[in-house]
Amino acid sequence: MYPNSGPAEPARRLQRRTRAEKQEETRGLLLDAAAEVFIERGIQGASIEEITARAGFTRGAFYSNFESKEQLFVELLQRRVYDRLRTLATGPPAPLDPRESLRWLAERLVEGYRDRESEWLFALWLECLAHAARHPEFRSLAATFWSGTRAIGSAQIEAAFDSRGARPPIEPKHLATAGIALDIGLAVQNLVDPDDVPLELYPRLYDLLLGRLVDAAPRTAGPG
Question: Who has the most CB within 10 Å: 86, 88, 106, 187?
Fold first, then answer.
């Protein structure tokens, strides 16, 4: 039996934890640098060398954290956007029926798009779509972004109907897809034509196009 084996073990655990924290910090710095470079150069024009140089690391540090520039790009979008989605996922402060919840969500989206940070987030997402259109091999990676968003929306929709003992008229993930389609469609039009497509349209159109679908749903859950 070795007398020092006990105290050394907690020290080794602390060291492993510290390495993990350092790696997370490195990833965060690379992601922050990449956001700047992607906005300036686009995903096609951005290089790993410029990203690592701006973050103060080497290519080795990059490949210790990411497999490719594309993987980093998708994680950047996921981290930044999912931070917001997680806030929305907590739902309204008070219990609301599905239609009221839908309006609450639309109003939160409007607040988000008025945030200055949303401008570069949306620019990055358009870069992602353009890159996927040119590079089919990138599409499955880019799809993980929407699949995650869809999963969060689907869970919210299902919970809202479950709370009423009702079922949605179609699968929750399809309703979530409709919400995403409306969100992205309005956001793109607002980006290029804000006077004709103001953000104030969000709550009105969400209620008009999706609210009625939600209202048509209350069917008591049961067999069949």
Answer: 106
